What we know:
Elements: H1 8-29, H2 33-41, H3 43-46, H4 48-67
Amino acid sequence: MDELNLSWKGHLILTVLFGPIWGGVIRILRGKVVIGVFYMLTLGFFGIVWIIDILTIIFKHNIVFLAK
């Protein structure tokens, strides 16, 4: 989470607690405005992409940790 200088744990907590709103904000900050707004309006693409986001954060951290 380089845009806001968050650790992976902070990003994970915000994703779990604020789900579709946080996911939409992150996409908007990355320059994907249409996808970000659509993400928020559909509640994280009906919850499916929100769960994928959570798993991606966890597994991406574990892969980086194992590579060190």
